Amino acid sequence: MYYRTHNLGELREKNISEKVKLSGWVDNRRDLGGLIFVDLRDRYGKTQIVFNPEKVSSELMEMASSLKFEYVITVTGVVEERYSKNSNIPTGNIEVFADSLEIVNKSSVLPFEISDEVNLSENMRLTYRYLDIRRPRMLNNIVKRNKMLFSMREYLNNKDFLDVDTPILTKSTPEGARDFLVPSRTNEGKFFALPQSPQLFKQILMISGIEKYYQVAKCFRDEDLRADRQLEFTQLDIEMSFITEDEFMETMEELAKKVTRDVTGEEINYTFDRITYQYAMDKYGSDKPDTRFGMMIEDLSDLALKCEFKAFNETVKNGGYLRGIKAEGVSEKFSRKIIDDYTEFAKIYGAKGLAYIKIESGEIKSPIAKFFKEEELKEIIDKFDAKDGDILFFVADKPKVVYDTLGALRSKLGKDLNLYNENEFKFLWVVDFPLLEWSEEENRYKAQHHPFTAIKKEDVDLLETTPEKVRTVSYDMVLNGFEIGGGSLRIHQEEVQEKIFKLLGMSQEEAREKFGFFLEAFKYGAPPHGGMAYGVDRFLMVLLKETSIRDVIPFPKTNKGQCLMTEAPGYVDEKQLEELKILSTAKREENQ
Fold first, then answer.
1. What does residue 389 show for φ and ψ, rounded to 5 degrees?
2. For 440, how many CA atoms within 13 A lie in the half-sphere containing its CB?
3. pTM listed for this prediction
């Protein structure tokens, strides 16, 4: 027995007069003048089925009239030329006159229509994800996800990379985010961790002589969620031995271009720009800048030291920055209320306020203008090359607050003012990240990427004197303001690795306890190597112009880290907890 001779997207005029068997879901049913028309749908498309009372029995017509949305049916019939053609679908020139019908399965009343036209809450979509995926948009995203993964594998296989899988149950190591821990029943009191990335294993594979490795890897990080982040995510993990920074980046650039072409049909025919981390922060306020538009940040800290406006002057004297951006030709549109809205937006990122200067009909209009001398105002205008109709925004605060606020404000203005082409794909590399970043929470330096990143040769001496100035041989690939991949060349000498651990405040004993197996492997001839990982979900989200990463993942979690469809996470049986020697205080309190 078979269910179909053709899928529902492939019949054409060349198939006219053929006897066919088709199966799928009832997408629509129309009763017109005795004839019953059914649009039958599967993953491949739709085909119109016709039930004609002059050609089939009354029993068959009665069965056809009972069909409802999303019934699963099988029909047989003959392909004929369609009288009223539909140019909107590939099968629109034909229809199938049914001579038999089997209702394979009925459907309950749907919680929502299987259509892209209905406006659904995300919670509803995630609760009934199996229905949501039937909608054209979501189905297309799943198909494109498959195309992306196939394209990646095809490219790397043709470049002689080996697909090597690494463990999911591994050791807890400090790599930035919290680990997901898995208790071991057979090793009481001990825990596995789910991998935040295969970082250590892929470096060990280089020491093993694999030379070219890749893996489509599941990764897990217990961190706060947002539109482009999930607790579990998929990354394309890549590592190469005996490779220079330029060679590796060129290879990854080729891969990104191929994937973009295969998924979207767009050709990327330019070499990706490279900008340093410091330049990105200074001019865009972000290490993942959207360069589809200008609106560069300007530094006014020197001017702040000369002016008498205390909010600017004292901030810079205390180590802060004064910086600003220019929105061109929009001054008249920016009412006080709109400016207040942007000020509230700036406060989200820690800014105390948002100063501004408008230029209208040759006049400067601003609440802060009275605090500046005429020549100082002219210096500000000249700095931005500002003209009539422009508005300047300023933030004076700690460096991080200034970067975060102006970076976010620049992105918001770019979107609100339609400053870029939404259909453009603008790739670039951000390179030379600092080795360290200061953690206010822990009051110490932490590795900005991870502690295995190679240091630029010209900065090695700074390790002993000014480690905060040390740069790494690192590179992030950015697309339209999103980091879609990142990596570095790696440290491959044991003594250098131990220096970095020490710099991060890790004793030799602690390093051995956490990374002993890794450091031991370094003793047996580690080659120079480097790699990176693409965030598959985020990359696809940007290519498909989706606004949430959840729309390109088959079964994602909500912002609270929940799966609404399966109701995970959930409580487990007391017996399971006893076997693992775990006491759940949360459950005990609930039962009191």
1. 95, -10
2. 3
3. 0.92
